[in-house]
Each structure stands twice: as C-alpha cells, then as structure tokens.
Amino acid sequence: MEEFSRIASGIGGLDQILEGGLIKGASYIVQGRPGAGKTILSNQVAFHHVADGGRVLFVTLLSESHDRLFQALGRFDFFDAEKLGEDISYVSVFQTMRQEGLDAVVKLLRHETKRRQATLLVFDGLLNARDRADNDFDVKTFVAEVQGQAAFVGCTVLFLTSASLEETSPEHTMVDGVIELSDMLAGVRTVRQIQVRKSRGSKALGGLHKFEIDRRGVTIYPRVEALYGGALPDEEISSARLSCGVAELDALMGGGVPQGSVTLVAGPTGSGKTTLGLHFLSKATAEEPTLHFGFFENEQRLRLKARSLGIALPEAGSAYFTVLCHPMGENLLDRLAHELINEVRDRKISRLFIDGLGGFERASVHRERLAEFFAILMNHLRSLGVTTLASWETRELIGSNVYAPAGEISAVLDNLILLRQFEENDELQRSISIQKMRESAFDTKARRFAFTPGGLRISEPLKKPGKEASVTFPLAD
User: Among 162, 156, 130, which residue's Cα sits nearest to residue 143?
Assistant: First the structure.
C-alpha cells in the first residue's frame, strides 16, 4: 500500500485510528447529528494545524455569527484568539450561496484558498450546499470542484455535515474518507463514539471507538483489541521470581510470582485481596517502580490501611510508588486501559496491582467484548515487562465453592490465588490456596491465614477433609 504524506490532527487517538493522521491533500466528510462534536473536532484540528506551521481557511455556510462560535470555542484549551485572522481565517459564504448559488461559492473558495495560502480547508455546512443543489449531479460537481482545487495546492479538506449520509450518497462517493460521530444510550448515560466509515487507499482501525469532550477538546480512545490485537508481541520470558511481600506465600509459589506474569487474586469482600496487593507494592524500589491502579481507595486510605497492618510503603511523594484511583462512575473501558498502559510505559512500572478488574467490567458498555479486551490488555502488559497482580471480587462471602463473575477470564491469567472465608466453631476463618501457576510447580494445599499487626500471615494447612476450596469459571449470569 502506498505511503501517504500526512498531517497530524492533534487529537489524541484520532491519528491512531487513521493509521497516522489525515492524508495531505485528501478530502474527508465529518458527519454527525447537531451536537455530536463536529465543530469542536474540526476547530481542534485547525488550531493544531496552525501550531504546526500550517494555514487554515474555515468556511461556514451557517447563518450564525463567528463571534458566537469564538465565544463557544473560548472554553477549550486549544483555542488561541491570537491566531485568528492571519493564520486561521473564518469566512462566511452564506450570503454568497443564497444570492449567487454554488458556482459563486466555488469561485470564492478558489480565490480565498489561494490568497490565504491555506493548507487546510474546513467547510462547515455541506448539508446547506446539498439543499441548494438542484440534483445529485450538482452536489457531485460542487464537491469535486472544491476538493479538486484544494488538492491541486496540497490543501486537505474537511467537509462538515449534520446529515447522516449513506455510502451511496454522491458526497460519499467523491471524498477520500468519511468520519462519523455519534452517540448511544448505555443504560441511563450517553456515550460518544466515532467510526471511520471510509478510508480510500489507506488503512484505518475499523469499528466504533469511544470519545469524550472536555476542556482539552476531543479525546478518542481507540479500542484496545483493534489497536494492540493481532500477533502476540515478542517478549522475553524471564525465569526470575518477584516476592509477593509475604514470605510464606513466596515459598508456596516456588519463590514468588514469575516476573512478567499476570496473577489474579480472587476472593470475597474483606478477604484480604487489597492487603495482599499492598504487600506486593511494599517491595517498591527505584529499580522496581510500582503502580496501584484502583477504583475504591485513594492513596490516603491505602496508606492508612497499610499502617494499621504494619505494611511499610514508600514515603508519600516517592517517585517509585504511584497510586491512581478512578472512582466508580461513568468510566470508559478503553480510557481506563489507555491510562493504565500509558502509566506503566511512561513510568517504567515493574510491579502493578490492579484493584480490581471488576472496575473495568463495570465501565464496559459492550460486555460481550470483555474476554478479548482482557486478553489483549494482559498480553500488552506482559510485553511491557510489568509483573501484574489483579484482584477480582467473588460473590460468595462464605463457602467452599467460589464462582468468578465473568467467564473466560481464566485463560488470560498465568496464576490464580484464591482467598476464602468460612465459619468454624462460630468464628470467621480465612484460607489461601494457589489454584493455578502456568508452567510452574506450586504447593496445592489450602492454608489458614490471618491479619496480624505485621500484615498477612499464613499458617498451617487446613486439616479437615472436604474443606478445600474450588473455583469455577465461568458463571452464567
């Protein structure tokens, strides 16, 4: 496939799903209903293009004044009023179209593009032009003339339209790419999504990708499966072991968790999953930076818990101990994954504790993709060389049989540690057992453990027959 010269959009995630950015000299339709984010996205691209040394002609066929547009754009970080007029020019052709027709608009655009030496042309109001045309042939002619003269001078074109054009529409057949913005209701919340519906001669990440609009403008989160899927990444398989921070557990696992592996700690609420994770993170050093990625407790609460159990964490502000808390709310599955991956990569994290995986499950809009999502996410974490502990809360508070709340996840794990609670002589007892260690021997006995002023302490094996715990994957909801 031919390599194209491209321009960066300046929008996080958009260049990734376009496999490198907008093609220089190409034309795109950006479509979506009113309020979908087309104007914000196109202006964000425009101001980034100017910051990169380009020049932008922003043409509107709308009746509203540009002052109202600038007032709305002023709340975004990318907007720079000092760039208006010289580097980025806003021109209204509404009166020209109404009084003289589309031919006059084409002539005006040719003149202004050349006069202002524009390298990016944004045309906001393709639907208005369509309404002004007498037939489909006129629409084709208009689009062809605008993009033809722009391409001649290497100018990239974005046509904005509020119409949801079909693939057979004359506009679709003329342009090089079609980007559609939409939203959907997921329960009671609205989720924004973007799709590249056409990319002529160039690869693109297909399917729907979620995005958000905030002070930064538009931020897109490409689906992890699409971005990092494909062949398994090459990785060095280390024979080294990392301590869990609990000497007895290290011994049961044959020396600790294998470096670069993924270990799930499953158990009911209050069974010690976070405590075990804090033990694991307490081994942080400058050579082994750690990250706590959770949903329920901030750093202050984690430190309070650690102090009460005698677990020594690095001092607050330490460069090699990071806590990221994403309270349960309207999270996006792929945003969480990208933030996690970026933190691990940028901080060169060696030890990672995800507290718990259920936070990802709750953020998912399409739960049928969870098995593939977790598989790709864990593969990518392995490729980054991080050793991961992740917790998963099981439903059963007390009992011998434990069921995982999501199916098919066991296949993506290297190791599985099960924490269980049961009653004995009217007292709550706890046990820990290793259910799985990939390609490694381990102690299969379930053992008692307790929380002590020195942290989690494992003692003798359970003696009564029939009390060994078992875990079952999956459970049908």
Answer: 130
Closest to 391 measured CA to CA, from 367, 379, 366, 409: 409
As given in the structure block, the two tokens for residue 336 are 């969480």
Which residue, 36, 266, 259, 69, is CA-closest to 160? 36
Q: What are phi and psi of 337, to 5 degrees?
A: -65, -45
Cis amide prior to 314 (ω within 30 degrees): no
Q: Which two tokens stand for residue 273?
A: 């999953």
Q: Which residues contact 401 (CB under 8 A, 6 or more apart)?
A: 469, 470, 472
Using the structure block, give the residue that is written with the tokens 């949903």: 295
Which residues touch 425 (CB under 8 Å, ≥6 apart)? none
Q: Count Cβ atoms below 10 Å from residue 477 Cβ, excluding itself.
A: 7
Please say whether the beta carbons of 88 and 119 come within 8 A.
no
**DSSP H stretches of helix in 181-313:** 224-228, 247-252, 273-281, 299-308
The residue type at 12 = G
Contact yes or no for 392/443 (Cβ under 8 A): no
The Cα 184–Cα 166 span in angstroms is: 19
Q: Distance between CA atoms of 14 and 116, rounded to whole angstroms?
A: 27
Return the exposure string of 277-313: e unless at least 16 CB atoms fall within 10 Å of the residue's CB, then b.
Answer: bbbbbbbbeeeebbbbbbbbbebeebbeebeebebeb
In 200-313, DSSP assigns E strands to 209-214, 217-221, 241-242, 257-258, 262-267, 290-294
Give yes or no for a contact between 473 and 408, defined as CB atoms under 8 angstroms apart: yes
Per-position pLDDT tens, the chain of length 477? 557 899 999 998 999 999 999 999 999 999 999 999 999 999 999 999 999 999 999 999 876 678 889 999 999 999 999 999 889 999 999 888 888 988 899 999 999 999 999 999 999 988 887 777 888 888 888 888 998 888 888 999 999 998 766 666 778 888 999 999 999 998 899 999 999 999 998 899 999 999 999 999 999 999 999 999 876 666 667 789 999 999 999 999 999 999 999 999 999 999 999 999 999 999 999 999 999 999 999 999 999 999 999 999 999 999 999 999 999 888 999 999 999 999 999 999 999 999 989 999 999 999 889 989 999 999 999 999 999 999 998 876 555 565 554 556 777 889 999 999 988 888 899 999 999 998 889 999 999 999 999 999 999 998 754 444 454 443 332
315 contacts: CB under 8 Å, gap ≥ 6: none
